[in-house]
Design a protein that fits this description.
7 strands, mainly beta
Length: about 130
């Protein structure tokens, strides 16, 4: 009797969006600041940015589909001039329009079911939530 393949031990990647909108007006987060994200498998993960800014997160289920896309620069459109024209007297040459607006190419990366929203961690929460080093 044929059986289906067991999926035991197969791990799937899970992507999480870190939403910092609630704290963006309260604190300045320097670009490329080092950070530590811990407790992703708990109800309230902790994010420490630049050893100064302490945030606590809470998972929120998405409504509908939330799709993450990657963006890259698309190559410019290139046309081959096949005959004489008033704009170009070089027959058989590749033409790139210098006035062409740069294009972007987007590709889906993954679909999400949850977003991790962060808020500032209060001093009371800090004592009970973060373990000392």
């Amino acid at each position: 009797m044929a059986t289906s393949h067991d999926q035991v031990g197969v791990e799937e990647d899970e992507y999480v969006v870190l939403d910092l909108d609630a704290v963006s007006e309260q604190v300045h987060i320097p670009p490329n600041a080092p950070y530590v994200l811990s407790g992703l498998d708990t109800l309230n993960p902790i994010l420490i940015i630049d050893d100064k800014i302490k945030l606590i997160g809470e998972y929120e289920e998405t409504l509908g589909s939330c799709i993450v896309l990657s963006e890259t620069d698309a190559p410019p459109d290139v046309h081959e001039e096949t005959g004489p024209s008033e704009a170009n007297h070089f027959s058989g040459k590749l033409i790139i329009n210098p006035n062409q607006v740069p294009k972007k190419q987007v590709k889906p990366v993954c679909q999400l079911q949850r977003i991790l929203r962060f808020k500032l961690l209060s001093e009371a929460q800090t004592d009970s939530t973060i373990e000392p080093k």
